[in-house]
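Build the 3D complex.
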Amino acid sequence: MTTAAEPANAKIVILATVACAYPGADTVGQAHLSYPANTYVLRIPAPVMLPESFYFRTLEKGIGGIIVMSCGEECPYEGAYHRFAARLDRVAVRMKKEGYDRRRIKLSAICTVCTKAFLKEVNEMNDLLKEIGPPRKGEVAN
Amino acid sequence: MNTQTIQCDALVVGGGIGGLTSALELADQGYQVAVVEREASIGGVMIALSKVFPTLDCASCITTPRMAAAAHHPNIEILTCTEVKSITRDGRLFAANLMKKPRYVDEKLCIGCRQCEYVCPVDVPHEFEGGLGARKAIYVPFATAIPQKAVLDAENCMLCGSCEKVCPSQAVDYFQRPEEIKVQAKSVVLATGFQLLPKDSKKEYSPPGSLNILSALQMERLLSPHGPYGRVIRPSDGKVPDSIAYVQCAGSRDKSLGIPYCSRVCCMYAIKQAMLLSGALPLADVTIYYMDIRAFGKGYEEFYENAKAMGIQFVKAKVARIAEDEEHNLNVRVELMEEDGRVEERAHDLVVLSLGMVPGCNPEEFVPVMRDDDGFVKCASPKTAPALTDQPGILVAGTAAGPKDIVDTIAKAGAAAMEAANYMRGLELDLSAVTEAVTGEEERAAERAAS
Amino acid sequence: MPEEVQTNDQPENREAKEPQIGVYICHCGGNISDVVDVQTVAEEVKKIPAVKVARTNMFMCSDPGQEMILEDLEKESLDGVVVASCSPKLHELTFRNALKRGNHNPYLYEHANIREQVSWAHHGDPAGATNKAIRLIAAAVAKAVRLEPLKPIRVEAFPHAVVIGGGVSGLTAARKLSKQGLGVTLIEKSPYLGGQTAQLNQVYPTEEKAEDLLRMLVEEVVDDSNIKIYTGAEVVAATGTIGDFVVRVRNVPGDTSAKGIGLIEKKVVFRPFQGCTVRSDRPCSPGDELEVRCGVVIIATGFKHYEPRSGEYSYGESPRVITLPDLIKLLSPDGPTGGRLEIQGHPVRDVALIHCVGSRQVDGIHEPQPDGRVNSYCSRVCCTATLQAANEIKDRFPHVNVYEFYRDIRAYGRGHEDYYEKASGKGVLFFRYTPDSPPLVEKTGPNASRPLKVRVRDTLTFGEDLEAPVDLVVLSVGMMPNDISDLVDVFKLPVGTDRFLQEVHPKLRPVEMAVNGLLLAGTSQGPRDITESCASAAAAASKAAIALGKGYVELEPFVAQVDPARCDGCGLCLNECSYEGALRLTDIEIEGKVERKALVNAPLCMGCGSCAAVCPHRAINVSGWTLDQFDSMVDAIAAQ
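Done.
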């Protein structure tokens, strides 16, 4: 049931924090600002809870991009943001090893009223997916 | 006449957002609360609004959870279709006489299926839709009403008997009588709300035979997703209006009407409606004729700025008179205050009057509290304890004590609940002090007797 | 604190048969159904094997909507419910409560957001929106299948509140709570109680003396044996959660002002423009600290006045340009001139009052604050306060000419309009300016009759350029929140774009903040007058009384939970946990064998899930947010 006009991009999973980014995504909707419908926001208390394997499993399922929208430094959980940032660094190393385009996973801080930043992240990921298509191991040389 | 007696801690008069908030706060603190509402559903004015400023949340989405929470709260009893006849002080308590008006439908039996509504042959203007849509003589008050029970309007009923025949639960009862209810309560919260000034109060704004001059509440209904027409059209001919005017301070800040005060919400609701209109009718021009734009609440000024950026026209002007021609087009005579008072006639397809707030009722008729010159309940300590009336134990919430927006109504309702709780706690302490004194006296008497 | 291992009821045969889920899709009166084809969504969702029923309704949140769910739970013996409607922040709780009402576990519920994140965001793409709604609901169903019944964590509530800020709001909140029999500790950074109200002479619209209002409030608080007062004290740290916070308070370093005033036993002394000095229960020597245990914290930290930039309307350049608070002092019998309207030793003959200084600022026109943002909000009180001052000048000094330069007169409150009316009647002249051409305050030449002039393009007279010679200019400065960055850090307080503290929702939860047990009162939340501050303080007190009055608080059960069967006691999770005491290793006996397992202390766990990510066996998970649930949601989204 995709629009007939042009082939849809691969899907994007957005991990949005309960405290900041999820209400931020709501604010975008409340303002009736529009963005592509291939975006699926999953609510999460803190992205630190997901293991590295989650990201690779998600890419293997064909999800083209993952945007982690966190609270950034405003993270309500002690030390969680830094532990999470370190984890994403390890994810990046493994992506390189497995030959994934590292741009498929993006970390950004989105606040409850960050409508412009939200749209920018979503649109940039979509532009990227238009360019590089669906994910596969070894898509870039490691 | 049947007489029912209810004993409770707090009696809340009015089931709008203010009354419900006070009731919920008290009930959550563990007090037993009775809420009296004269209409057939709780929800007050707020449930009839389309969206609310400045968040543009749908009003129903904010109101219905509170209505449901109150209706389902184990500590709250809700009495709809019920009017307060009198509240008097009775020793340490208050005694209230209530009158439950006949619904002509047994609330316990009615399942809200609306079969009666479908067979009723009578059509009358629907009050909930500002008279713009039609309802039957027996009807569930509106889609999100609580309770979801039918009510029969005896004035318009033809007594054809169709509803009684079709009702699957035999709930229709043409012989229902008014019921007297007596309430004993420790405290009273007045949340009797407001009404908009009637549309025809100012004759310059209500030419005879006019159809296309709407009250702001009528426009709320037109903008509502489940409103009377399902879209914004003008009542006279169903035309989609190209040009809509808002007349601000129509019945506020107007000594000629005896309403010198500002109604606080009209600027913001007009801006909100203008924004919603721009969304619903992208080609229409919306002009707001105003004296001062009073966007003073949290996030309101930003909301106003957004409206200006959307292209809504704000014109500082006094509207002298509105005329409606045979085609029901409108001619608005304005004094342009930014052009040294130059007078101009401007044509519009539809005019909305931003009518001010007047008291929902005169509380002096049933409760011994004082009113202020403006007709609203007088506050005894307006600065530091705004929920107190001149009567200890009788508190005031929401717009019963003067115009307020929803945010301020809810804050004041919370304050009224806290004051009521403080008062009741004081009663308990007094009582235990009395008991202690009595016990002490008895003990001493016993000691004296022993010695 | 009693240690308790959270024991949730194990699902009965949940694994044995595929759970049966009911899905309910809301039209939201067109808000959703105008874009999303809800009928198609229902039909597609019905095809998912775990979905027993899929229904639509005009308003799921309405009573009939909720009743429909409850009926199905019985008739269809559902194991879980998914509602697809607006954002979960609005109605997730509504539907959980509905389940609870029907005696079902409220946590066997999952919400799909198809309004804010679908219909409102993809209005130009109905087909895409419909497809997205189907996938989001499929994901919610996948999660619902894996939900387990949970029980709220019950925490004892310590019947004591900490109120931070000793202005009218803090005083009001403290007193209302104490009257309910609760203990209160009031902490004030300055040596005085009374906050900004002490800066006033008479308050509008009652014209009561601010001193009298404050005295009454402060005396009640001081005489109240349930309230402990610490002035010259600040909060430096806080631990704990709703029901049981420990707040560390210390003497403000370098605060010696209190010494000069002395501690006055039981006697309230009002000092004009400063506040009330009272007997303080604060630690006396600098650096002293104490800990206060409490169930809730009310933040009533108030506001400060906008400080005009040097040169803004010649402020700082001419001593004849002052702020409204300065004028109030000048008019007060306790002020520097004993109440005579004099500037530079000479009586004032012409005064200009300029509104909206530091309020209603416009990006690109006004100079931003250090954080790069302008004060775009209205400060709410300045119009009436300015009109009140204009009236007072006209009453006491009838020959003084008063000019007001305004944008809109916002005399909105009960009795406020009278000031406007009276001012006009007394001959105050009003000029209206637009933000892009504000009044200009200039020095005049040596031969001029007045040392200053105000030039303005008056929009009330065809944009005519007008000039008013004056000897005093008063800037009606707006409100800004006090600098409470330390408290924002200590309590992780949410701050809005206007820099004031942010409530959860302005109408649904107006005095609560995102962190449980933290409440808002007065102008810390946004500009408001004394009436409105006291109302919000009483409303916050009511919420606090609800939390503390019962003696316990129920918390959401979304905390880490260990599956002892999978845990091998490796301890990797412990290294990740930031919350002292939330997680530890312990020896437990299982079928006669002693084994080392991780153990969660639920009330201390914040549910961040740092532990879950590192467990090699998925033995530890945050309840309601398990990794299996996330995997299954991704699978549902990736399908098709």
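Strands of chain A lie at 12-17, 39-44, 65-70, 105-109.
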